[in-house]
Specification:
The protein has 239 residues and is α/β, with parallel strands linked by helices. The chain has helices at 14-26, 37-46, 63-73, 87-96, 108-131, 163-173, 182-190, 200-212; strands spanning 6-10, 30-34, 51-55, 78-83, 100-104, 136-139, 142-145, 150-152, 158-159, 179-180, 222-225, 229-232, 237-238.
Length: 239
């Protein structure tokens, strides 16, 4: 068990904490629970955590603020739990850097699948960095350092990317000049298919455009294909 992934569940609902602690424990995970932001920060200081399941609505400091704080200093994977109808908050959560979200009420098995997918992507990123330790990708004057996960602008400035933005950019550069549907992008970056109202890919594309496009309202690098999805237009050079 000491080598199994350690999940931190942050939720003020005791029944949810107890349910997830038992369920995830039965499926081979170590689990620590926290009721609020204070207990979350203490758990992160005391233990090595591999993924955080973070409820949006918490007493005191809210989940969005905690997500932003955590992402500012760490690449630790985050899955946010949100109210079913609060689509705006789910979008904001992704903009803050959450890796995925799940709307309440949810089935524990669906959360288990999301946790495994996010952990798998995090492991794949580490493996890719090890294999391509000196790899660089250049496009439209930009340079992406695959080992350091750093993006450099044509002016030589470093641009911070969240996990979601980085995964999306890698998916694009590895499939340059190909039309990718939203389902394809969601599968490549989040390991799942899109639901009928899933806007997470669109949110990440919008965030990425704000960072790499000269005019995000008239994009030239990541273009929308009507009825098809998106296409990464520049030629890509690998070194």
């Amino acid at each position: 068990m000491q080598d199994s992934p350690h999940i931190l569940v942050v939720d003020d609902d005791r029944e949810i904490r107890d349910l997830l602690s038992r369920f995830l424990g039965k499926h081979g995970f170590r689990v620590t629970v926290a009721r609020d932001g204070r207990e979350m920060k203490q758990a992160l200081a005391d233990r090595k955590i591999d993924l955080v399941v973070l409820d949006l609505m918490l007493p005191g400091e809210g989940g969005l603020s905690l997500c932003r704080e955590l992402r500012a200093r760490s690449a630790l994977p985050i899955i946010m739990l949100t109210a079913m109808r609060e689509e705006t908050d789910r979008v904001v959560g992704l903009e803050m850097g959450a890796d995925d979200y799940l709307a309440k009420p949810f089935g524990p098995r669906e959360l288990l699948a999301r946790i495994r997918a996010v952990l798998r992507r995090a492991s794949d990123r580490l493996d890719a960095s090890a294999v391509r330790a000196d790899g660089h990708v250049r496009f439209a004057g930009w340079t992406l350092d695959l080992a350091r996960r750093r993006l450099e602008s044509p002016d030589g400035l470093l641009v911070d990317l969240t996990n979601g933005e980085y995964d999306l950019l890698v998916a694009f550069v590895e499939r340059s000049q190909r039309v990718l549907s939203r389902d394809q992008l969601l599968d490549l970056t989040r390991g799942r298919s899109a639901g009928p109202f899933d806007r997470s890919v669109d949110v990440q594309v919008l965030r990425l455009r704000r960072k790499i496009e000269t005019d995000p309202t008239n994009p030239e690098i990541v273009k929308t294909v009507r009825g098809g999805g998106y296409i990464f237009t520049p030629a890509v050079e690998r070194t």
